[in-house]
What we know:
The protein is mostly helical. Helix content is 63%, strand content 5%.
Amino acid sequence: MLNKLQQLTKSEALLAKLTLLAGCVFTLLYFFFAHEGSYFNDDWAYSRYAHEVLTGDFEFEDMPFSHRFFAYLPVSVLYATIGVSPYITTVWPMLCTAGTLVLIYYLLRKNYPGVAMWAVILLGFNFHTLFLSNYLYPDNIVMLVGLGILGVLYRFRKVRQNAVGFALAFAVLNFLAMLTKETIIYILPFYLYVFVLDLVRKENLKFWVWSAVFGSILLAFYFAAYEIFTGHWLNRFLMTSEIVNEFKPGYLNNKTAYYFNRLTFEPIQFFIVSGIIVPIIFAFSAPGVTLRNLLKLENTRSYWLLVTILILLAFWFGSTSYTHYKPMVLVPRMITVLMPPLCISAGFALANNFYKPRFQLLVGVLFIAAAIISRSNMAAIYVPIGLFFLFVRFVPKFAIPVLGLLAIMFSLAIRPLHFMVKPTVTDYFVTQKLMTERLNHKSGRYQVFTNEYLAQQHASFYGYKPNPHYEYLNYNRTQHVSATADTAFLLMNHAMISNPELMMHLKADSVYMLFPERKLLWQKGSVQLYMLPKKKE
């Protein structure tokens, strides 16, 4: 058994395959065990658009969501071929999450299997990418497409053949990224830099010319379609600018204080609190390239590290508004395009420096420092990794790679595992069961008073085939029971109204005061159904 373990540690290619399998399996397990159904207005909107495309009812709305076609058109295909359900709704982002792991492995498996092994672990067990795989948000979709763009450019610069084919793939992927989410712009500085570098060197010009040709053709059709269907070829961008300006935060009244915090220490705090600091510590504890290597892209490691640095700079200092300086909000889903190149850069650092005492000491100290600074349960992730690297010298050398993999893997898995076993925060599936089985009469007229979220989105609980005999009302706006209703109900979802992220205005006690003559009919988990007395108009 000892000999087999020693052979395993020497086979980076085998370990890379096993970690890819582990990452994909863990993504699937998280998908099924941590699924909450639809979560908030974002994924509900994309789901509704997907269904409206099938029924021919789709119309543009004054929100960016309706313009992100690649986020929901694949879901329309799934609805048409399989059917409508919360799981089918989120198959697309889940596949993109697993697909990103596969693409990382594919790009690195031949020449850098050790790097692929570490990169897949760091991304495959990252909580936020797993969390987003369960909701119809565009962030993991743009993560995969962004890596595809970088991968095409990377592969072409390696083989330097079939410039037209690579240019077509590059242009199409950029176009699909634009149809997914605007955060793809974070990788634009990198390949503009590569273009200028190639222009100065007079290299790869055929690739760039054909990329411009194909990109121009795609954009011409795109803008022409907007001119025809919306009346203005720049409709999407004008609308986005208006929305950003409409929601100007209060910091504009005190710019100095806000800007200083946001542009100095707040991103560091954000990376620590979110867990993104894990690959950052690895990647920058041993960059392994000189400034000249980095700027001239003289090797693969320089390529992925420069991508990482430029995306970080764009996220840290860039603006989301055309009219005033407004840095991006510090939310993990706004920077998913960073994760693949960051994890690959971290993979290079780990693969090349894992056995070096100075690297081990620095990494161990930084993780313990992150645990202290976080002052939260994130310490449960940072402390085990930090202790492993501080005491790795006492581990038999042949066992270090496997134990290192397991230490990082299980430390990162703590938070996803918690979400897989913790109580639901929405009781979505209990609510759906109640609606489809008990609130689904085939005749009569019924009113259901419930929270604003369920009142607005009840159609999705019926698979977008709502019962015409039911009227769902927001009890925060009206408590009037119609005299023509056969029966009126009060539907309470305690998990949903107590979830701070859903920002409900009324809590349970306040709602009960609005309906003092209720009678309990059904209860399961945090969901309750009451009958309300009829009232004369």
